Amino acid sequence: MDKNPSIKCTVQQCKYNSAAEYCTLNEILVGTHEQNPKVPECTDCKSFELK
Ligand code: SF4
Question: Does pTM top 0.85 for this prediction?
Answer without folding.
Answer: yes
